[in-house]
Design brief:
4 helices, alpha/beta
Length: 108
């Protein structure tokens, strides 16, 4: 499953989504982003269709990052019904991301 998202897909895949969406705004040069990446991949597997999980490279999709005021990476934003519902800056415990998209999962 490809979870990489491009700017031109953002409206359809995120804002028009029928389920909660988690978007990881990242950059290839960002150390903490490299730590978070595998965690986001795992969250996508856990979500397995009950929510959508994407990664958006801010260097390739700077217009979307600017639109949402992403000033540092990693920033993870969750959306529901086209609206931002939660925002995390930096790396947090996976349970926080899962809770934000309404998924209960024991990560301990």
């Amino acid at each position: 499953m490809d979870i990489n998202l491009k700017a031109e897909e953002f409206e359809k895949k995120v804002l028009q989504a029928s389920k909660p969406v988690l978007v990881d705004f990242f950059a290839d040069w960002c150390g903490p982003c490299k730590t978070l990446g595998p965690m986001i991949d795992q969250i996508a597997e856990i979500a397995d269709g009950s929510a959508y999980v994407y990664k958006l490279n801010i260097d390739e999709s700077s217009s979307v990052a600017a639109q949402y005021g992403v000033r540092s990476v990693p920033t993870v934003i969750t959306f529901e019904n086209g609206k931002e519902t939660k925002r995390f800056t930096g790396v947090v415990h996976p349970k926080n991301y899962l809770d934000a998209i309404g998924i209960e999962f024991d990560t301990d």
